[in-house]
Design a protein that fits this description.
With 979 residues, the chain is an alpha/beta fold. It has 33 helices and 41 strands. The radius of gyration is 38 Å and the shape is globular.
């Protein structure tokens, strides 16, 4: 039998040849690399030539040419059509996704054979790449699994085929292969889907598909016919059974040792030889008209033509190349699925049910009473891919920034900021309102929503305020994990910050005790006979205007300029940090050991969340930007008056390494199973007091165009909201749709003239009994905060966080006054006692307000002088008559202008307990002058921060801190007393 040239080229290395006819109507199909014997002669020869004719049992046999040509033509058509269809599909996919290039990886043990070559040839014809991983024949199971796992994680590989000896295809090997890349359909999940009849979702084994394709080509209808599958290739048997039964065939599987095998074969219309086993099917067993299909190296019986009877027989060249084409089709199917997964997917979120109790239990009891969803399940529900998640236990995970690239074309959702009126020292529940709002939006209104919160510092957790996971039935769970370490971001910041501090003091010591030559030799050492600058040192040379890269080429003057930062010990601005309230670290002396050779200086510790690195984490938009910001952090000033940066110290790369995981937001969930990003926690007094830009951006993509992202600003609107708009929105380019302004009757009574409130002390009667006069007078602060929001052109919804002591008359009064003062709406919220159900009205109000036009604008232009920007904030936001600069503040401003920092935004460091700088001045103070005692710069973060009054960057512990109540049960490991 002579095959077409196209087919012979496509199947190079496959057997071709001529056929004898043992019985009338018997059709034989052979797979790759096999021979079919009739009598003592091979039907197919390896060289691709036709043998013309063969003699069997002494008898001459003639060929029925039209049957051979029909079989070959039918096979050619199947292969050609399949190839054309697959090529068209690739072309169509690449029109939509130009960067797509489907890739098949074949793991092979031993020498190359025809299978690998055929896959390569066919793949090349339709524009698909093939990667071949060749292992030795005696490779171990672990070596195979190692290669499989690499391919699993390679997003450029869309299909993996295991071309291994049967003993190597162990359960461990098969279990290690991702089902979505299993284009041979051998994993349990793919086989199970096929058995269930879910052919669309599964990958069908290509050989099984090829068998069914050939049957369809040679028989107009297979319905009602009987097939017998003989062999021990269980996955292939199962696949063939599923496919044939779906087409109405009766299917029986038998092993070579089955007693009734002869009877089954005699009754069969189709005999499929699935594996080697015995290589013998006696000709007397095959009835006229039956089709014999060989799917493995088993040979059709040598006795098949022994009777010497001339019969009609049609022959297909084999299922091997057709199976290869179908495997390639599976790769294209996999790549299409992969591309579809890259697109935005609507959420399939299942909310967790709440059963609120009355009276409301403690926060920790409520948290422990709810079982959170597994974090990978929540991730799938909101459209995250498995490779975008890094789990930290069962209930939290880091989310990779690759998500931003994947969803870059997805429109953002609605952006909502939760701010508040000037609070009492107890806090007014902004975090609780934030959580209650998203629970209402998602669990009750069925709108996709995300909460973005700051990570709490250990300072307040063990100090006086306690945790920040929300409260009651509106909180993030598990709350112990939320408040203790989380994923270690603050520890990473502490380590990075203190590495810079150590580098500063070490550099000053070495410069003071070594010559230029000694410094240069140590900074640029000879290693293995070679001496070269590191990349960060070359960058420093360029900043110095030295365009040389050969250390030997520097002049003595250039060497001195390069090695000497010449930091002025009295003008080092970089402090060490620790994540604990510790007042005794506000001023310390370092360098007192004999080894420091008398280089003693005064310095201080800040709390870790006040580190500039924390502010950078909150404002960066990616790794490259973070690294650049870290590099330009100013650590002090040289004696010549020049700023010295982290880049000058050579520490930038190390800082980026320490921060590489911290830059990823942490995914958690609310009590009702809705998603939360916890990321960054910059000190709200010193820095801008908002969660990260990255968390907001990721969340805005995930919720979809009709969804909501609710983020919180620290302290009152005069601090957190103002900084959110003027600093964070400038850095992110994002524009808010709504401001939710949180108020409480308790805080309004304080602003109306009520007695002072302090943590740990019982509330005075004024805050428990109804007092409409105090409430009405205190609404002056609420009115002022609404006006501040309107300065930025954003609609306001007032959320009145209701406590059990509030009366209906007090609640109604606040809501009425808020609307009269220009709020879009004012709603009483009961989320603390009821969960999301208690904030449904707030959610509806926010949804309606988000539909209104927002005329967002910044408060000041960055080109304004530093002094005028400070004055604008003081007068328009705080209500001050003017500002007063200390001589030190004036000198610093002049220096910053000289260094080119004058166009940075302003981040006021001011008390949160009053609109003024005086914590005891409640309501809306007027007629005051705002004192600016110092002005500092966070150049890496990108803002200037004036210090107002006596603002401290290191809190202290109270007489009775929270840690008195915190304990651990050594038997159950249960934490007690945390909340």
């Amino acid at each position: 039998m002579r095959l077409s040239g196209a087919f012979r080229n496509a199947c190079r290395g496959f057997p071709t040849g001529s056929v004898s006819r043992p019985r009338t109507g018997v059709r034989v199909f052979a797979t790759k690399g096999t021979s079919v014997r009739v009598g003592s002669s091979q039907i197919f020869s390896r060289d691709g030539s036709s043998s013309g004719g063969v003699r069997s049992a002494g008898a001459a046999v003639k060929f029925g040419k039209h049957h051979e040509q029909a079989a070959a033509s039918s096979y050619d058509i199947s292969l050609r059509e399949l190839m054309q269809r697959t090529k068209e599909e690739i072309t169509s996919l690449q029109k939509r996704y130009p960067a797509l290039k489907p890739v098949l990886a074949i793991i092979q043990a031993g020498e190359d054979d025809a299978l690998v070559e055929v896959n390569k040839n066919l793949a090349g014809k339709i524009g698909l790449d093939v990667i071949q991983i060749s292992l030795p024949m005696e490779c171990t199971e672990d070596e195979i699994i190692e290669e499989v796992l690499k391919l699993n994680e390679d997003c450029k590989v869309h299909g993996v085929a295991l071309h291994l000896p049967q003993p190597s295809l162990t359960r461990r090997v098969l279990d290690s292969l991702k089902p979505e890349k299993d284009v041979d359909g051998v994993t349990d999940l793919n086989i199970g889907r096929l058995v269930r009849g879910d052919v669309v979702e599964s990958f069908v084994p290509p050989v099984a598909s090829a068998v069914v394709e050939l049957l369809g080509r040679h028989d107009s209808s297979v319905e009602g016919k009987m097939a017998v599958i003989v062999g021990e290739n269980r996955p292939l048997e199962v696949a063939l059974q599923g496919l044939m039964q779906a087409r109405g065939m009766a299917v029986v599987s038998s092993s070579w040792s089955t007693d009734s095998l002869q009877k089954q074969v005699l009754q069969a219309d189709v005999i499929v030889l699935a594996s080697a086993g015995r290589a013998s099917v006696p000709p007397a067993w095959v009835r006229p008209g039956a089709a014999v299909i060989n799917c493995g190296p088993a040979l059709v019986s040598e006795e098949l033509g022994a009777a010497g009877t001339a019969v009609e027989m049609s022959v297909a060249p084999g299922v091997g190349s057709l199976a290869a084409a179908l495997r390639i089709q599976n790769v294209v199917k996999s790549s299409r699925r992969w591309m579809q997964e890259q697109q935005y997917r609507p959420w399939t979120l299942r909310s967790l049910k709440l059963q609120p109790l009355s009276p409301v239990p403690s926060d920790i009891e409520i948290s422990r009473g709810q079982t959170p969803k597994a974090i990978d399940l929540l991730a799938r529900e909101i459209g995250l891919l498995s490779d975008e998640l890094e789990a930290y236990g069962r209930a939290k995970a880091k989310v990779r920034l690759s998500l931003l690239h994947r969803l870059r074309a997805q429109p953002d959702g609605k952006y909502v900021l939760v701010a508040g009126i000037t609070p009492t020292p107890l806090g007014e529940g902004k975090s609780t309102v934030t959580i209650g709002l998203v629970q209402a939006l998602t669990a009750h209104l069925k709108l996709s929503s995300f909460a973005c919160l700051r990570q709490p510092s250990q300072g307040p957790t063990f100090g006086v305020k306690g945790g920040a996971a929300g409260g009651g039935y509106a909180q993030v769970i598990p709350m112990e994990e939320f408040n203790l370490h989380l994923t270690g971001d603050i520890h990473a910041i502490t380590a990075a910050n203190n590495l810079v501090a150590a580098a500063v003091d070490a550099r000053m010591l070495h410069e003071a005790t070594q010559s230029d030559k000694a410094l240069f030799n140590r900074l640029v050492p000879t290693v293995n006979g070679s001496r070269r600058f590191s990349p960060i040192q070359i960058a420093r040379l360029q900043r110095l205007g030295i365009g040389k890269t050969d250390p030997a080429a520097l002049t003595p003057a250039e060497v001195s300029s390069f090695v000497r930062l010449d930091l002025d010990p009295g003008k080092v601005t970089w402090q060490r940090v620790v994540d604990t309230n510790d007042r005794f670290l506000r001023k310390i002396t370092v360098g007192q050991a004999n080894t420091e050779k008398g280089h003693v200086r005064e310095t201080q510790f800040d709390i870790a969340v006040a580190s500039e690195i924390m502010a950078i984490l909150a404002l960066t938009d990616g790794l490259a930007d973070m690294k650049e910001r870290l590099g330009r952090m100013v650590v002090g000033t040289s004696r010549a008056g020049r700023p010295v940066t982290a880049d000058d110290l050579g520490v930038t790369g190390a800082l980026a390494v320490l921060m590489k995981d911290a830059i990823k937001p942490t995914l958690m969930q609310t009590l009702e199973g809705t998603p939360v990003f916890v990321h960054a926690g910059p000190f709200a007094n010193i820095a801008h007091g908002n969660s990260s830009v990255l968390a907001d951006k990721l969340a805005l993509k995930l919720v979809g165009e009709e969804g909501f992202v609710v983020t919180e600003a620290g302290f009152g609107a005069d601090i957190g909201m103002e900084k959110f708009f003027n600093i964070k929105c400038r850095a992110s380019g994002l524009r808010p749709h709504v401001v939710v302004l949180v108020a409480t009757v308790r805080a309004l009574k304080m602003h109306g003239g009520g007695p002072s409130v302090s943590a740990g002390s019982p509330l005075p009667r004024e805050y428990i009994d109804e007092n409409l006069k105090l409430v009405e007078d205190g609404c002056s602060n609420l009115k002022k905060q609404i006006q501040i929001a309107h300065l930025f052109g954003v609609p306001v919804v007032v959320a009145l966080n209701v406590f059990k002591t509030d009366t209906e008359a007090e609640v109604d009064l606040v809501c009425r006054i808020a609307k009269d003062c220009g709020a879009q709406d004012a709603v009483a919220c009961h989320h603390w006692a009821q969960g999301g159900r208690g904030s449904v009205e707030l959610a509806k109000a926010v949804k309606n307000a988000a539909q209104q036009p927002s005329h967002f604008q910044f408060l000041y232009d960055l080109q304004m002088p530093i002094v005028e920007k400070i004055r604008t904030i003081a007068q328009k936001v705080y209500g001050a008559e003017d500002i007063e600069l200390s001589p030190e503040a004036e000198a610093k401003i002049a220096y910053f202008n000289e260094q080119g920092f004058g166009t940075l935004p302003i981040c006021m460091a001011k008390t949160h307990l009053s609109l003024s700088h005086m914590p005891d001045k409640k309501g809306v103070p007027t007629g005051f002058v705002l004192p600016i005692r110092d002005v500092r710069a966070s150049i890496g973060a990108g803002f200037i921060y004036p210090l107002v009054g006596t603002m401290s960057t290191m809190p202290g512990l109270p007489t009775r801190p929270c840690f008195y109540d915190i304990d651990l049960d050594p038997d159950t490991e249960e934490i007690t007393g945390l909340f």
